[in-house]
Amino acid sequence: ATVSPAIAMVAATNRLYARQLAIGLERGDVATLSELRRARLRWLIPVVVLFTAGAIVFAPALMGLFGADFVAEGVPALRILAAGAALSMVLALAPTYLKFTQQQAPLLWSVVGAAVAQLLLLAILVPRQGATGAAIAHAVTTLGLFGTQALIARRSLREARKPR
Residue 97 — very low, low, confident or very high, per pLDDT cuts 50/70/90? Predict the structure, then answer.
């Protein structure tokens, strides 16, 4: 719940970029797609850094809102979730690009891989580390999911730039 407002903000603004992305793809305008990505990152990275720094610095106070019992176990988990969310927010337009370019197989396999990895990591980490283990499992699989999709999208854009 603490990380959700920033994720919701990025998801909402990604809708604006999704429209421009669709237009650029329809036109085959790779230069516009690259500029769109840079423009998005110019405003997004400072916001994400600010949000993440706030979540890390104020983690004890934020967890204290849920009660004193949550602070000890919740602070490390919140910090991990904030860092993972920050990186996933930066990469969040990659799955939209893959959807628009009809690359369903990489999307499906990256989601399946992330789900399997999450289940395995949860089974291994939660019994030993509790909430922190769950946060690590979530952060690792989310980063793996979005990171993989971003790499596939970047490779696809590189291929689109090559003269035919």
Answer: confident
